[in-house]
Amino acid sequence: MLNIILLGLPGAGKGTASAPIIDKYHVAHISTGDMFREAMAEETPVGLEAKKYMDAGDLVPDEVTAKLVEERLQKSDVLNGFILDGFPRTTVQAELLDQITERLNKPLSKVISIDVPEDILVERLSARYICKNCGATYNKISNPTKVAGVCDRCGGKEFYQREDDKPEVVKNRLKVNKEMNTPLIDFYDAKGLLTHVNGNQAPEKVFADIEAALAD
Fold it and tell me: Could you give the CA distance from residue 139 to residue 15 in angstroms, rounded to a whole number?
């Protein structure tokens, strides 16, 4: 059984790294967003409890989120293991997760931190631009228009950038996330579970490094 947590700042490529792990090891990908939506749709007691907070515009307390995680980790698709994405976000949540994995006898195998220099992350995250006419989304680095300055879909020539994709906003978002991430990295490092992987390389090389870490 392979139970892992992927850590990394926005834009580090956690989603890209998850796909080949799921394919090779047949583990369940558990993201907190999906988990909340499923529990509310199924109207489980914990899902309904979480919905009360969300409907009121309040943050869902750690204990409720932890109950949701525990409920999710008992589903049949977790037999081979799991990748947790978006939980834990704090050391309090990490301690709650320790209690959950102990109760369910599903200890963590590895915590992988995908590391990318901040200037590269700013470049990646602020490279998105949108066609003013039809709303098609492009990325200067990974998905540019076929003809420079011309929308592939509608031929429009005017583009704009969303406020939260602008470099100064991206820098602030990274700063906030780094402040949250650092104590978690220290927490799992102290437990001997942490492995750092260089995320500033081709996706297949990132996966090869993750494979090596999981074989350790």
Answer: 17
